[in-house]
Amino acid sequence: MSQITEFLTPADLKKIGNLQVLARQVVEGFTSGLHRSPHKGFSVEFKQHRQYVPGDEIRHLDWKVFGKSDKFFIREYEEETNLRCTILLDASGSMSYKGDSKGAVSKHHYASRVAACLAYLMLQQQDTVGLCTFDTKVKRFIPARSRASHMKVLIEELQRTSPGGETELGDVFHDLAPKLHRRGLIILISDLFGDVSRLMKGLAHFRHARHEVVIFQIWDRDELDFPFKQWTRFDSLESAHNQMIDPSHLRQAYLENLERYRDELKQGCHRHRIDLVPMTTDEPYADALAYYLSLRRRRQG
Fold first, then answer.
1. Domain encompassing residue 22
2. Are strands 84-90 and 36-41 parallel, antiparallel or unpaired?
3. Looking at the 3D structure of the chain, how many domains does it have?
4. Of the candidates 100, 124, 101, 98, which has an alpha carbon nearest to the alpha carbon of residue 111?
5. What number is the average pLDDT over the span 217-222?
6. How far is CA 26 from CA 31, 145, 209, 268, 274, in A?
7. pTM, two decimal places
8. Exposed, middle or buried: residue 301 (CB in 10 Å: 0-12, 13-18, 19+)?
9. How do residues 18-74 score in pLDDT, each as one tens digit?
10. 280: nearest Cα among 206, 221, 212, 203
11. Mind spelling out the 3-state secondary structure of 23-36?
12. pLDDT at 177
């Protein structure tokens, strides 16, 4: 618990503790959870026997019963469908940006806390959650688990991860898609810097596999307002390039490009039925998550 409270304060945990993440689509899963399925399948919890009928798979026959009764019976199990979630955390160089305002935190710091909040919430409701960190490629992939002790594994990975390197999100997602065998909920936490068309093609892989996708886009307030007024040196966080610039000559063009980029991103997400949730590092992450998850639950109700 001490590791968790290093990332999440008791006040934050209280804000999100009573909320549930519920997938809008049917999610495949075979471990115990909150979402019991009304149908029977072949899972972990034995339910009953039924008589064999032509077409049933022979591998599900109960040979012990056959030995006693000389009749064929199928073992049926109670199938439970629980949310299977994978959190994709962007650890590229641009996520290390932090403004100069008092109490400012980097986008990576903020994103890591959002990831920890969501993981904690889902494990509390006995859903399974995994984590993938990436920059130019997948850095670490932790498969989804539902054990309470799994939170320690996730926190340790979040503590180890530091931003660095360039990324092209679309390419990373093409490589990652084959690792996610069962459909479920994919939560991407990133600033989404990159080519929008390539990003959407990568996300389309997940949608074609019938995953639900939610994106938490992390912004620093500087990136939205461009408050710079004096000559400023801008350093690339993903390469060694830097340049001295008079911001007054660029501000209008920057804001226009930003608006076009955000419009294109919104349209692409809407087209693929992806929730896009903007978050800024100067707002309490637990408040922002609580608002979104409450809205999501009402929408599904």
1. 2-28+83-300
2. unpaired
3. 2
4. 98
5. 94
6. 15, 19, 12, 23, 16
7. 0.77
8. exposed
9. 666 644 333 333 233 444 444 444 344 555 677 776 656 677 788 888 888 888 887
10. 221
11. CCCCCCCCCCCCCE
12. 84
Q: By the 8 A CB rule, do 190 and 215 touch?
A: yes
In this prediction, residue 236 carries a pLDDT of: 56
> How sure is the predictor about 13, in pLDDT bands with cuts at 50, 70 and 90?
confident
State whether 149 and 71 are in the same domain: no
How many CB atoms within 10 Å of residue 186?
26
CB 288 within 8 A of CB 117: no
Same domain membership, residue 265 and residue 120:
yes
Asked whether residue 74 falls in the same domain as residue 87, the answer is: no
Q: What is the pLDDT of residues 138-172, one digit of tens each?
A: 889 999 998 888 999 999 999 999 887 777 788 88
- Specify whether 19 is located in the same domain as 46: no
Same domain, 56 and 141: no
Judge if 76 and 88 occupy the same domain. Answer: no
Long-range contacts, 291-300 (Cβ 8 Å, 24+): 293/16, 293/19, 293/20, 293/21, 293/121, 294/19, 296/21, 296/22, 297/19, 297/20, 297/22, 300/22, 300/24
Nearest of 177, 121, 173, 132 to residue 154 by alpha carbon: 132
Based on the fold, state whether residues 161 and 68 are members of the same structural domain.
no
Determine the pLDDT at residue 31.
Answer: 32
**How many Cβ atoms are within 10 Å of 46's Cβ, its own excluded?**
10
3-state secondary structure of 242: strand
42 shares a domain with 11: no
